[in-house]
C-alpha cells in the first residue's frame, strides 16, 4: 500500500516526549503531521521525572502546563547530605521564573498529557507502526512503515523528525555518529513508598565514599529512588527487589526511613553521547535520538521537548513559504551547542557524585557547603538546572539582532509583566503569537511587507524600544524606537516578504 501525507507534511517517528511535542507543535501550527510508534502501547513506567522551569514556561502557553502542574509534585530545593548530616542545599525558589521549582511527575503521565493535547488538536498516535526503511529524494522522503500485523505502507513526507530514542534506528540507518562514551557506573532505580523523615518538598541526595543515593518525592508518600549499584551489575541483571533497595538506603542515608510497595525498579548504565549534526537532508533528529546523558539534574526529557519547540515553528514557516529553507539549518546551530554543554555538565556532575576516591569525596563534602553558601554560585547553578540560562546568542540566527539592556538576541525572553496601550497588565508570554514572531513595541510598527510573519503588540510599559520575540520565547531582535533597519535587515535574512511570497 502507498500512502502520503496531505502534502507537504511531516512524519514524526517515535511517540516519547520528544515526538509528542513535535507532533503537538506542528499540528498546532497547521502542518499536516503523522506520528508513529512501534510500541503497541505507551510505556507505563515513570522514567524521567523532572519537568524544569523552562519546559513549564513553554508548555503553559501551549495548553499543557496547567495539567502538568496539577498532576505533579513541586520541589523547591535539592538538599545534599553526607557524613551523617545535612551539608547544603540548592534553592530553586531563587529562579526568576513563575515556575521556580522542579516539578516531579512520572514520564508516563507527562506523555499522557502531551498525547491528550495532541488528540484535541486532531492527531492520534499511530501505535504498533514501525519505520523499517527510509529513502531521501531531492524534494521528499519515502518512508516504509510496517504494522505489528505485517501490513506495509510507503509514506511520502516533506520532512521526517527522528524522535526514535537512544537506539535510533534512523540514525543508525543513515550511518550518523553518536559520539561519547558509556560511563562506568551502574545504577539502581525504583519507585517506592517511604515513611520516615525524608522531606516531600525537596530532592534529597546522600553522598557517601562508595557512591550516592537520591530520593525524589513524587507526592503521596511515593519516591523515586536512585543509587549507585555497589555490585556494579549491568542492565541484564535481575531487577532489584525491595530488600535490596532498603539495604542500599540504610547503607548511605542518615535519615531513618522504611521503604515499602516497590512498584517499579530497574538497573541502568549511563551513556553520555550526542550527535555531531542534528540534520541529515530532510531528516531532523531530537531528544534521546540526538543526545543521551546522565539523569543528573533531570535534564534529558526537557532538552528533547525544547529541541522540538525550537524546530517546529521553523519547519512550519518554511513549509508554508514564509521562510527561506536555510532557516532550518538554525535548528542545529541553535540547539547543538546547548546539547553539547548539557552532556558535558551532566557528565561532570555524575563523575563528581560517584567518586569512590576518598580524597575527592572529602573535598566534595568540605567544599559543597562553602560553595552553595554563596549566592553567586546559587544564582548561576539554579537557572542552569531549570534550563533558563540556555541561550542561542552565539548562533547565526541571533546575528545582527542587537540587544536591549542585558538581553541579547538569542537569549530567553523572561515572562515578565507588561502593560498594554489599553492599560492592561499582562504576562508577556500571553501576548506572544505562537505561530509567528511577535513585535512588542512602545512606538512604531512592523515593516508592512512582513505583517504575515510578525504580529504586533503595542505596549506602554515593560519593553524598551521594540523587541521582536520568536515563537519559542527567545529574542529574535531588539532596537531603539525608530530603529527599523535592524528589524528589517534581520527579517530579510530569514523570511520571505509578502510581496515576494505572493509574487
Ligand atoms: C529505565 C529508564 C529510566 C530513566 N530515568 C530517567 C530519569 O530519571 N531522568 C531523566 O531525565 N531521564 C530518564 N530516562 C531517560 C528518559 O526516559 C528519556 O530521556 C526520554 O524518554 C527521551 O524521550 P524521547 O522521546 O527522545 O525518546 P523515547 O522516550 O525513547 O521515545 C522513542 C520512541 O521511539 C519509538 N521507536 C523507536 N524506533 C522506532 C521505529 N523504527 N519506528 C517507530 N517507532 C520507533 C520507541 O518505541 C519509543 O517510544 C530514563 C530512561 C529509562 C529507560
Automatic annotation (TrEMBL):
Database matches in InterPro entries: FAD-bd, FAD/NAD-bd_sf, RIFMO-like
Pfam family, one: Rng_hyd_C
Cofactors demanded by this protein: FAD
FAD-binding domain sequence ranges: 10-345
Entry keywords, A to Z: FAD, Flavoprotein
Entry GO MF terms: FAD binding; oxidoreductase activity, acting on paired donors, with incorporation or reduction of molecular oxygen, NAD(P)H as one donor, and incorporation of one atom of oxygen
Keyword Electron transport: no
Keyword Cell inner membrane: no
Protein name: 2-polyprenyl-6-methoxyphenol hydroxylase
Species this chain originates from: Mycolicibacterium rutilum
Amino acid at each position: 500500500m502507498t500512502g502520503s501525507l496531505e502534502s507537504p507534511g511531516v512524519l514524526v517517528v517515535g511517540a516519547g516526549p520528544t515526538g509528542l511535542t513535535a507532533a503537538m507543535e506542528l499540528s498546532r501550527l497547521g502542518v499536516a503531521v503523522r506520528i508513529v510508534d512501534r510500541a503497541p502501547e505507551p510505556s507505563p513506567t515513570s522514567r524521567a521525572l523532572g519537568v524544569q522551569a523552562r519546559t513549564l514556561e513553554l508548555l503553559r502557553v501551549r495548553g499543557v502546563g496547567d495539567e502538568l502542574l496539577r498532576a505533579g509534585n513541586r520541589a523547591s530545593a535539592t538538599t545534599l547530605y553526607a557524613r551523617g548530616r545535612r551539608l547544603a542545599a540548592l534553592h530553586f525558589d531563587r529562579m526568576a521564573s513563575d515556575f521556580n521549582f522542579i516539578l516531579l511527575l512520572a514520564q508516563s503521565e507527562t506523555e499522557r498529557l502531551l498525547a491528550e493535547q495532541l488528540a484535541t488538536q486532531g492527531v492520534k498516535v499511530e501505535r504498533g507502526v514501525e519505520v523499517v526503511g527510509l529513502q531521501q529524494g531531492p524534494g521528499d522522503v519515502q518512508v516504509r512503515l510496517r504494522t505489528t500485523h505485517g501490513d506495509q505502507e510507503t509514506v511520502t513526507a516533506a520532512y521526517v523528525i527522528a524522535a526514535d530514542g537512544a537506539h535510533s534506528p534512523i540514525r543508525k540507518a543513515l550511518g550518523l555518529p553518536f559520539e561519547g562514551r558509556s560511563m562506568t557506573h551502574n545504577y539502581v532505580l525504583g519507585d517506592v513508598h517511604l515513611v520516615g523523615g525524608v522531606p516531600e518538598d525537596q530532592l534529597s541526595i546522600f553522598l557517601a565514599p562508595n557512591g550516592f543515593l537520591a530520593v525524589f518525592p513524587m507526592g503521596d508518600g511515593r519516591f523515586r529512588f536512585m543509587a549507585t549499584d555497589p555490585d556494579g551489575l549491568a542492565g541484564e541483571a535481575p531487577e532489584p527487589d525491595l530488600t535490596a533497595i532498603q539495604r542500599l538506603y540504610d547503607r548511605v542515608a542518615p535519615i531513618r526511613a522504611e521503604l515499602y510497595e516497590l512498584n517499579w525498579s530497574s538497573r541502568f548504565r549511563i551513556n553520555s553521547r550526542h550527535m555531531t549534526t542534528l540534520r541529515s537532508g530532510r531528516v531532523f533528529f531530537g531528544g534521546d535520538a540526538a543526545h543521551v546523558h546522565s539523569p543528573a539534574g533531570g535534564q534529558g526529557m526537557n532538552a528533547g521537548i525544547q529541541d522540538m519547540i525550537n524546530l517546529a515553528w521553523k519547519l512550519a514557516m518554511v513549509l508554508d513559504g514564509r521562510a527561506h529553507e536555510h532557516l532550518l539549518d538554525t535548528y542545529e546551530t541553535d540547539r547543538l551547542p546547548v546539547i553539547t554543554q548539557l552532556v558535558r555538565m551532566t557528565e561532570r556532575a555524575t563523575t563528581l557524585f560517584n567518586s569512590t576516591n576518598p580524597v575527592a569525596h572529602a573535598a566534595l563534602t568540605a567544599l559543597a557547603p562553602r560553595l552553595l553558601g554563596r549566592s553567586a554560585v546559587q544564582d548561576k547553578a539554579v537557572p542552569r538546572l531549570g534550563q533558563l540560562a540556555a541561550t542561542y546568542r552565539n548562533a547565526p540566527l541571533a546575528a545582527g539582532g542587537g540587544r536591549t539592556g542585558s538581553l541579547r538576541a538569542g537569549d530567553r525572553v523572561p515572562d515578565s509583566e507588561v502593560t498594554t496601550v489599553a492599560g492592561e497588565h499582562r504576562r508577556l508570554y500571553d501576548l506572544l503569537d505562537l505561530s509567528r514572531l511577535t513585535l512588542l513595541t512602545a512606538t512604531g510598527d512592523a515593516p508592512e511587507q512582513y505583517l504575515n510573519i510578525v504580529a504586533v503588540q503595542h505596549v506602554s510599559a515593560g519593553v524598551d524600544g521594540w523587541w521582536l520575540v520568536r515563537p519559542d520565547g527567545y529574542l529574535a531582535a531588539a532596537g531603539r524606537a525608530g530603529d527599523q533597519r535592524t528589524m528589517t535587515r534581520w527579517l530579510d535574512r530569514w523570511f520571505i516578504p509578502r510581496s515576494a511570497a505572493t509574487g
